[in-house]
């Protein structure tokens, strides 16, 4: 994949986990909530945005916790990705 986000944007790949109910039924992905844990795939350069200097705090490979309904989803080569603003990242998971 060769995607280069601009400014303070970050491309993330959702970490998929199989959801299983207490009774043992597996939920299809359409019935699951959007994952909040993601892996950073690409990071924009940062820079001056709206008159303020933005320094990127995440790097490729970081596992992050994102806002639930943020970003724009897209597919490349059959894989799902989301592009979000850095400010939509709530935490780096270590």
Describe the protein in words.
The chain is mainly β. It contains no helices and 8 strands. The chain has strands spanning 9-14, 37-43, 47-49, 52-54, 63-66, 72-76, 79-85, 89-93. The strands form 2 sheets. Strands 6-7-1-2-5-8 form a 6-stranded antiparallel β-sheet, with no helix packed on it. The chain is elongated. It starts with 8 loop residues before the first strand and ends with a strand. The model has no long low-confidence stretch (mean pLDDT 86).
Shape, per Cα inertia axes: elongated
The number of E-state strands comes to: 8
**β content, as a range?**
35-45%
Major pleated sheet: 6 strands, antiparallel
Strand/helix succession: EEEEEEEE
**Category by helix and strand content:** mainly beta
Low-pLDDT parts are none
Radius of gyration: 15 Å
Helix content: under 10%
Count of separate DSSP helical elements: 0
Distance, first to last CA? 25 Å
Chain-averaged pLDDT = 86
How do the strands of the widest beta sheet line up side by side?
A: 6-7-1-2-5-8
Compact summary:
With 94 residues, the chain is mainly β. 0% of the residues lie in helices and 43% in strands.
Task: Give the topology.
Layout: E1 9-14, E2 37-43, E3 47-49, E4 52-54, E5 63-66, E6 72-76, E7 79-85, E8 89-93
Antiparallel strand pairs: 1-2, 1-7, 2-5, 3-4, 5-8, 6-7
Keywords:
94 residues, two-stranded antiparallel sheet, 0% helix, mainly beta, elongated
